[in-house]
Structures are given as C-alpha cells and as structure tokens.
Design brief:
The chain is mainly α. It is 79% helix and 0% strand. Residues 3-16 have low confidence and may be disordered.
C-alpha cells in the first residue's frame, strides 16, 4: 500500500457498526421490552385482584383448559415453523421460506379462531367484562382484557407475516432480506412466549 492510500484511509471515517439491519433489530428489541412491561403490568394486576378476592373462581372449573393447552401447543409449533422459515431465507431457499411462513400464519389464524370459539361460549354462559356467574365480576374483566390484548398481538403478527409472504410470492424477497425475517421472528417468538405466561397464570394457577 502506498503512502497516499495510507493517508486516505486515515482521513476517511470508520464505518458505523450500526447498519440498517442492526437498527431494525434494536428497534424491535426496544418495542418488545416496552410490550413486556405492559403484559407484566396486566398479569401483576390480575394476580393482585385475584389475591384480594374472596370469591375468585378457580380457572380450571370455568375455562376450557384442554382447548387452551392445544392452542398453546399450536403456538409453540408455529415458533418452530418460524425458525424454519428464517433458515430457509438464510439458505436462499425461497420455497422453504414461503412454505413455513404460510404454516406459521396458519397456526396464528387457527389460534385466533379457537380463541373466538372460547370467547363465544364463555359469553354465552354469562361471562362478561362486568359480569361473572361463577363469582367475582373482575374475573371476566381481567380475562377478556389480558387474552384480548394478546389476541391483538397475534392478529398483528399474522398481518405482519402475511405481508412478507405476499412479498415473497411477488418475488420481492431475496436472501439479502434475511434480517427482516429475523426481526419478524423476534416478534412472533415474543408473542408465543407471552402466551405461555398467560396460559400459566390465567388458566392453570
């Protein structure tokens, strides 16, 4: 290397380690951290209200634990297919990306359909935001707020992944876009993890 090249290298500023991809991941992690606090506050409030109530019904006697256990299993499986979708685009296998993205979306839609079924039957039995035939009225309030808040996140995730599936089908996704799918995967795994906590605290304990 000649002297002029050395001088030029010293003058040029070093490239920032924060690329658009890393900024995207950082943004998603910040969003998820805030969202985790929101879910934490809801679950903490649920626990406080339940602890202070003398007639709080036992969840297993009211809620369909068998159905929600299957819903939980379904979301866990959708996390696996999301990992496989990410692996597909990292290998440049667009067919695998599309297949496993579609399966992940199907898992999310199936989860929402079963949640709608559960809500419909509970409402028919008399459970509401301000009413509960089995005891404390706040049981219905907390149940619908927590599960509804999570359901909104699943809906957002399904729309989010559907946009990427559509882009892939139209040829707009390449191997170089793997970081975008990785960011989407972070969101989906977070939604799945939160549901495991909701299922444990609201349905089992």
């Amino acid at each position: 290397m000649n002297q002029s090249a050395v001088v030029q290298a010293e003058i040029e500023p070093a490239e920032s380690p924060l690329t658009p991809e890393s900024w995207g991941k950082l943004g998603m992690w910040v969003f998820l951290a805030g969202d985790a606090m929101s879910f934490g506050a809801l679950l903490a409030g649920y626990g406080a209200l339940r602890y202070g109530s003398a007639d709080w019904p036992h969840p297993s006697s009211v809620l369909g634990v068998g159905l929600t256990a299957f819903m939980t299993f379904l979301l866990i499986c959708s996390s696996v297919t999301m990992v496989l979708a990410l692996d597909g685009i990292q290998r440049g296998d667009m067919a695998a990306l599309r297949k496993f993205l579609a399966l992940t979306i199907l898992g999310g839609v199936s989860f929402l359909a079963m949640q709608a079924y559960e809500w419909t039957h509970l409402i028919h039995d008399g459970l509401g935001l301000s009413g509960n035939p089995w005891g404390a009225s706040l049981f219905g309030t907390t149940f619908f707020i927590i599960t509804g808040f999570h359901g909104a996140h699943v809906t957002g995730g399904v729309v989010y992944l559907s946009c990427y599936l559509t882009r892939s089908l139209l040829g707009g996704l390449k191997q170089g876009h793997a970081s975008e799918i990785e960011i989407a995967a972070l969101y989906w795994h977070f939604v799945d993890l939160v549901w495991i906590l909701v299922f444990t605290f609201v349905y089992l304990l």
